[in-house]
Structures are given as C-alpha cells and as structure tokens.
Amino acid sequence: MSSTETPWLPAEVELRLLPPKSRRIRNPRPEWQVWLDGRCVGHIDQWSVPSASATFYRATATHPATGAPIALESNADLVERAEKIIAAWHEPERFVHKASWE
After folding, report:
1. CB pairs under 8 A, 24+ apart, for 73-82?
2. Phi, psi of 94 (to 5 degrees)
3. How far is Cα 96 from Cα 74, in angstroms, rounded to an integer?
C-alpha cells in the first residue's frame, strides 16, 4: 500500500507510512501517521502475537485541545483503526478513560 493511496478512507484522511526507526532492525513493523485535513491526528503501529498468525494495529489518537495521547484498543483492521482515530479527534470525551474514583 502506498502512503498516499487509501481508496477506502475519505479524501480528507491520509495514512502516511513512517520510515523505520532504526536500520538495524531486520524486519521493522510498519507505523503510520493519520492525517486529517493536513493535520496529524494520530498514530498507528502494527504488532503481532508471536504464537498467532493475525496482525493487529494499535492506535493512538491526539487530543485536539491538549495534544495529549489517547490510547485506543487494538484491532485487526487497519482502516477501522484510522476511522477510530478520526472519531476520537472529533469527540475526544468519548475515548478518554478516567478512573472510577474521579
């Protein structure tokens, strides 16, 4: 997949594949930035369980007011993770977890 070709996402959403963090890693896991209307709104990284064949995507959205990271659950669908980041950008209060005593 090209970093600019994502036909299943709306035109204003772009996934940008990041270069590997280190050239020493033999098979680096892909990471993407999620951009909405020219603004970086989150990050997705790929991971897998060594004993499983499924690939998972961990998403982290950015709070639009504070810039704080909002950790989102993992999922096996990359596009769904990008959509969840966009949803968290538009309504961060739905995704910010608070302790039960707060």
Report:
1. 74/47, 78/15, 78/32, 78/44, 78/46, 79/6, 79/8, 79/9, 81/44, 81/57, 82/6, 82/9, 82/13, 82/15, 82/32, 82/34, 82/42, 82/44
2. -75, -20
3. 15
For residue 52, count CB atoms less than 10 angstroms from its CB and return exposed for 0-12, middle for 13-18, buried for 19 or more: exposed
Whether the per-residue pLDDT at 2 is higher than 90: the answer is no
| pTM for the model | 0.82
Q: For 21-59, write each residue's pLDDT tens digit.
A: 777 877 788 999 999 999 999 999 999 888 878 899 999
